[in-house]
Structure formats: structure tokens, C-alpha cells
């Protein structure tokens, strides 16, 4: 993992002191709320419905056990004993008091964490594949790239007042687990077919929100050494030409859409040609210094298949199911990447109590080289687990209520906090997720349905990624009640797609029935081995729309 | 001064967030005709006419100026069981707490002196 150098340490401490001063000036009246708001947002402090909210950056979703324990402590001491992991791989506390936030930021700085650029019109926390460094389908670890971008973009003077927020995601694998096509910039590490060098495929203009767009490729093979100069060229074109007159048209996706990807790429290339690349691109020594922090841990030489694991699976079907559903292949024989579900049936997706955080931190320290990850799907990952240790881990997780075997299944629902917490929300998300989870709680049925991603947002801003859910649910207000619009056919992977609306909005209590009918069409129509999303692609929306209309009629 | 936004239908209450704590607070009657902030929604002063609503708005402006509260605004209510209840579901949640966590927020008696702790 990356460790702060003296500069990083000084930078973060200085920011804590600045914010402490800003808070005291707010409290003594020297700063008005209008003056203070942009300052607090730059430090991750929002005002929500019931309280302030603090959003803590988890750079590219990577944490160590000490950091997670510190988050547990903050949750216990300054909040209500729990935190919420988000689709941006961050952590949010829902109840901090403004007076305590400078102290909380100090506690975070102690463990090399901060809330900088988790809000505001700047380059936000960079996200990455949660299986970075361990995935079997990986060409190169995306974390050194993500860390380089974090350093380059932190308090970058030219890009601190962009037309709108800006999100960058990186993957180094063939399968896209970082939703790069729904980001302002998506980077994919890939090999050049002729030179076999690793390059970046650069996509720009993806994003969800009220105008969902899939990112367009503007460069197929960008040499790695040119990354920062090329990013700078993109940012300059956006900063100059992105709209500032209308916040709903201010994201780079609108600019790319309005002038076209080709013209956007042409302007970026023209800017790139003019820039003094060598003065912007990172020094190769610095790149190597950063990369060294992400060297693989000291793996043992192990057989590819663990007899201990196989024996435990044979004697314990529940454990075997969990292993099958929650583990992913690892680069190194005998190891596995384990996803811990933060979606126990009936709980708020992504919430973890301080006690649960401590359990996971202990497991990471003991069994995963002290490392863990936060996924954009609001789960946690122990990336380097010996297969033979899985049974012991499963038992510990079970005691903490964290042994749900549902990764990628119908109950592994992404949901934003919605109107239970969020001041922007138009409807609740969490109770909808809970109701669907209850309806599909049966494990055997979930496995029979197979991979199915439901994503729920409580407003058009789409923090719950509903547009790219296989089934997406958007909560709106309609004539004074909460109403839920269902979309179908979205995809968050390398086959990224925006879902289409199935029909009129539904009342909350009708949503589980509608999902049930959609799933029934799939089960009736699927070919042998065909997944939900493949089935939707093959048979089209019509049969699902017809079934959906029955729900609407039944509800009328 | 900006043009006054259209006022919500009456009866209405005034709510805000406490600057220091972020907690939802309500304007209520204090001593000798003054207004003060309370954390208990049941204590919220109900404005039934424009004069009372003007009084709440003046109190909101003073609270914002005096840096005691943020995000203060009037909310239209119905009277249920003798207490004001916001007509809109968003504001109802604000007087209760997260619906998935009945153990938290005002619904659990947090910040409400007279309420039983649950």
C-alpha cells in the first residue's frame, strides 16, 4: 500500500489546521454559511436531513486494518456506531457534529486519511478495480496509476474550480469492475498489439445523473509515460469549454456529447501537442517509487487447490455455497480474493457497524497481508486470502453477521442512502432494497436466478447507479408520494449500457412484485446457462414490458 | 433583499438545522412572547395566519444572521393528535429520523427531554 511521504503528511496536516480555523471562524460568525459552505464541501462535510455528513476518501478503495479500526473508532466516538460504504468506494458518517469534525480530521490524518476533494467541483477521489493487483484477468495493477492521479489532482490549482465535479476510474483488467464507462474519464490498461507495451485506453464523457452517457474512447493506446500531460489536456479543454451557465449541463459528458467525441478528441490532441509534456508528466523515478508501494506481498508457495478447503466444503454445504458465491480467482495459486457482503438480508446496503469494521480489520490483518478493499458495489474485499483459511474466516464473519453468500446475486443490491438521510433525495432507497431482499431471501432461489444486479437511487443524481443496473430503480416524487421508476438492461461492465424505462412509476409496495414478474420472464425464457442480462439482450424489452404492465394493472 | 418566495400554505411550522450539531430544530414559543429553538417537533409553534408566519420568518432570518441555525424554512403541516405533522413526506422524515433505523433520531426520543428513551 502507498505510504505518505513527508510532503503528503504535511499537506494533509496543513489542511486539517486550515479547516479547524474555518470552522472556528464559522462558529464565531466571521464566515457566513454562504462563505463557509464551499469550504466545508471541499473537506467532505455536507448538511443532510437529520445532521451533518462526513465523506471520507478511501483512495481507490484501498484500506489497511489500522485505517479501518480508526474508522470504527470515529464511528463509535463521534457518530452512531456505524458508517456507510458508498458507490465511490468511500465511507460516510451520517451524524457527526460540526464542532467535532476538525478533531475527526486529525484522527484520520494520523492514519494517512482525509476528506479532501470528496465533494465540490474538482477532481474527486480516484476509484479503481477492487481486485487490483490480484485479479487473474489483470494486465497491470491500476493502483499506481490511481495513486499518481491522486497526487497530481490533489489541490491542483488549475483544476480546483472546474465547471462541475470530475470523476476518474482506472482498471487494469479485461473485465471492468470499476464502471469506467460511467466516469468523466475512464482509463483501461491494455497492451498495444504491435509493441506489446502497456498503454491506456482513454474514455471521456461517461456519467450517470440526469443525463446518463456511456464514455467515448478518445485515445486507443496512450503511452503510459504521457498520462498526466494527456489528462491535463483533457482537463484544459473541459475547463475552458465546459458550460458554467447551467449546472445540469456542466459535466464533461455534455461537452463531449454536444461537440461529438471526434471533435473533443481533436481539441484534446491539439492541446496535448502544445503542452510541455516533459514538465507535466511524472518523473519516471517518482512513478517507480509509487509503483514500489504496490509490490505483491510475500505470498507462500501453495498448491492450486487446498485440500483443507475442499474437505471443509464437502462437510459444510452452507460454507461451500459461500465460497462459490463470494470468492474470485486470484493470480497466485492457493490464494483467493474474498468479497465480504455488506448486504445481509434486511440491512441497509453498505452499512457496517464499528464492531463489524473491527472484525474485518482483524481478519485483514491476520489473513490478508493487512489489506482490504471497498468495492463500488458497497462490499468489502480481503484480497489475499489463503484458500485454507477460508473456513476460519467464514466462521468469524458469521459471528459478526457478515457471512451472507450473495455477491453478484439479486440481493446484492446497490442503494444510495436516499431520503432516509440525503437532503437531495426525492424518495427512499434503503427500504426498497430491504423489501426486495426479503422477497428474494431464499439462497437456493437466488442461486437459481444467478447474476442479477439491482441498483437503486433515491433521486435523479444516480448515486445508486440505477442507469447501469440490470434492473434499475429510481425513486421520485409523484403527486406527493414516493414513486419508483424501473429500468431494464443497464450494464456496468465492459459492455456498459444504460437501462430503458419499462413503464409508469410504481408505489413502493408494488416494487417487489414488479421485480418478481421481471425475474419470472427471465426464468421462463432463458436458454441453458444464459444470464439475466444476456437474456434481456437476446429477447429484448417487449416480454418484460408486458409482464411489467401486469404489475401496473394489478396495482391500479 | 431578494423577492420573497411564495409562502407555503398555512398552518406552518419553522424548522432548521442547528449550526453546531446539525440536529433538526423547531421554532417554539419562549418566555414573554419570544421565540426559541427546540429539538422536539411536538413543541413546534404553529403559525395559523400570515402575521404568525411573518414572525417565524423573522426569527429564521435572525437565527441565520446570528449563526445559531442553517437551512431554516417554513413547512406546511396538518394537526394530528394535537401536534403539527408536516404534510410532505420529506419533512416528515426530518421530524422523525431514518425510517430504516427507528432506534435513531427524534423517533427514538433523541434530543427530546420529555420523550421516553427507546
TrEMBL record, chain B:
Residues 94-118 are annotated as: Disordered. This is DUF2849 domain-containing protein. It comes from Bosea spartocytisi. The lineage of its organism: Bacteria, Pseudomonadati, Pseudomonadota, Alphaproteobacteria, Hyphomicrobiales.
Amino acid at each position: 500500500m502507498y505510504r505518505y511521504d513527508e510532503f503528503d503528511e504535511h499537506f494533509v496536516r496543513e489542511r486539517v489546521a486550515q479547516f479547524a480555523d474555518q470552522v472556528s471562524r464559522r462558529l464565531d460568525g466571521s464566515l457566513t454559511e454562504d462563505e463557509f459552505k464551499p469550504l466545508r464541501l471541499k473537506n467532505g462535510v455536507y448538511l443532510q436531513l437529520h445532521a451533518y455528513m462526513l465523506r471520507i476518501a478511501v483512495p481507490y478503495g484501498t484500506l489497511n486494518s489500522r485505517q479501518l479500526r480508526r474508522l470504527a473508532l470515529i464511528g463509535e466516538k463521534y457518530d452512531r456506531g456505524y458508517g456507510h460504504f458508498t458507490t465511490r468506494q468511500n465511507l460516510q458518517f451520517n451524524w457527526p457534529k460540526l464542532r467535532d469534525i476538525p478533531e475527526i480530521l486529525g484522527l484520520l490524518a494520523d492514519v494517512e486519511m482525509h476528506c479532501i476533494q470528496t465533494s465540490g467541483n474538482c477532481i474527486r477521489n480516484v476509484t479503481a478495480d477492487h481486485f487490483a493487483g490480484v485479479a487473474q484477468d489483470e494486465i497491470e495493477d491500476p493502483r499506481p496509476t490511481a495513486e499518481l492521479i491522486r497526487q497530481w489532482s490533489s489541490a491542483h490549482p488549475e483544476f480546483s474550480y472546474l465547471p462541475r465535479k470530475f470523476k476518474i476510474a482506472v482498471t487494469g483488467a479485461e473485465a471492468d469492475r470499476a464502471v469506467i464507462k460511467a466516469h468523466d474519464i475512464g482509463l483501461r490498461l491494455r497492451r498495444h498489439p504491435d509493441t506489446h507495451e502497456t498503454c491506456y485506453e482513454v474514455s471521456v464523457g461517461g456519467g450517470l445523473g440526469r443525463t446518463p452517457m456511456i464514455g467515448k474512447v478518445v485515445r486507443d493506446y496512450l503511452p503510459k509515460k504521457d498520462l498526466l500531460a494527456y489528462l491535463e489536456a483533457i482537463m484544459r479543454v473541459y475547463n475552458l469549454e465546459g458550460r458554467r451557465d447551467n449546472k445540469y449541463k456542466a459535466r464533461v459528458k455534455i461537452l463531449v456529447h454536444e461537440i461529438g467525441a471526434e471533435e473533443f478528441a481533436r481539441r484534446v490532441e491539439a492541446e496535448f501537442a502544445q503542452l510541455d509534456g516533459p514538465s507535466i508528466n511524472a518523473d519516471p523515478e517518482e512513478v517507480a517509487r509509487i509503483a514500489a508501494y504496490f509490490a505483491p506481498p510475500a505470498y507462500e508457495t501453495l498448491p492450486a487447490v487446498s485440500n483443507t478447503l475442499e474437505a471443509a466444503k464437502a462437510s459444510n454445504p452452507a460454507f461451500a455455497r459461500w465460497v462459490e458465491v463470494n470468492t474470485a480467482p486470484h493470480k497466485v495459486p492457493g490464494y483467493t480474493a474474498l468479497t465480504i457482503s455488506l448486504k445481509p438480508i434486511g440491512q441497509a446496503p453498505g452499512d457496517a457497524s464499528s464492531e463489524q469494521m473491527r472484525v474485518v480489520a482483524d481478519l485483514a490483518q491476520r489473513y490478508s497481508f493487512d489489506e482490504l478493499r471497498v468495492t463500488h458495489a458497497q462490499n468489502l474485499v480481503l484480497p489475499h486470502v489463503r484458500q485454507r483459511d477460508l473456513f476460519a474466516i467464514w466462521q468469524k464473519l458469521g459471528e459478526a453477521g457478515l457471512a451472507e453468500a450473495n455477491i453478484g446475486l439479486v440481493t446484492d443490491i446497490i442503494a444510495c442512502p436516499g431520503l432516509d438521510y440525503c437532503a437531495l433525495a426525492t424518495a427512499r432507497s434503503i427500504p426498497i432494497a430491504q423489501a426486495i431482499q426479503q422477497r428474494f431471501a431464499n439462497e437456493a432461489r437466488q442461486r437459481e436466478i444467478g447474476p442479477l444486479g439491482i441498483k437503486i437511487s433515491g433521486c435523479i443524481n444516480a448515486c445508486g447507479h440505477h442507469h447501469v443496473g440490470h434492473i434499475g430503480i429510481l425513486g421520485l416524487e409523484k403527486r406527493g408520494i414516493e414513486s419508483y421508476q424501473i429500468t431494464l438492461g443497464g450494464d456496468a461492465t465492459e459492455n456498459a449500457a444504460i437501462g430503458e424505462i419499462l413503464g409508469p412509476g410504481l408505489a413502493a409496495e408494488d416494487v417487489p412484485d414488479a421485480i418478481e414478474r421481471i425475474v419470472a420472464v427471465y426464468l421462463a425464457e432463458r436458454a441453458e446457462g444464459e444470464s439475466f442480462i444476456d437474456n434481456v439482450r437476446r429477447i429484448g424489452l417487449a416480454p418484460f414490458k408486458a409482464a411489467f404492465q401486469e404489475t401496473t394493472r394489478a396495482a391500479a | 433583499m431578494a423577492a420573497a418566495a411564495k409562502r407555503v400554505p398555512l398552518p406552518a411550522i419553522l424548522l432548521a438545522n442547528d449550526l453546531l450539531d446539525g440536529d433538526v430544530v423547531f421554532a417554539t414559543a419562549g418566555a414573554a412572547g419570544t421565540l426559541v429553538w427546540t429539538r422536539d417537533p411536538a413543541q413546534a409553534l404553529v403559525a395559523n395566519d400570515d402575521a404568525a408566519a411573518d414572525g417565524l420568518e423573522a426569527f429564521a432570518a435572525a437565527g441565520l444572521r446570528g449563526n445559531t441555525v442553517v437551512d431554516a424554512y417554513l413547512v406546511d403541516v396538518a394537526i394530528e393528535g394535537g401536534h403539527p405533522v408536516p404534510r410532505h413526506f420529506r419533512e416528515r422524515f426530518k421530524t422523525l429520523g431514518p425510517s430504516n433505523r427507528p432506534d435513531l433520531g427524534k423517533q427514538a426520543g433523541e434530543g427530546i427531554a420529555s420523550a421516553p428513551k427507546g
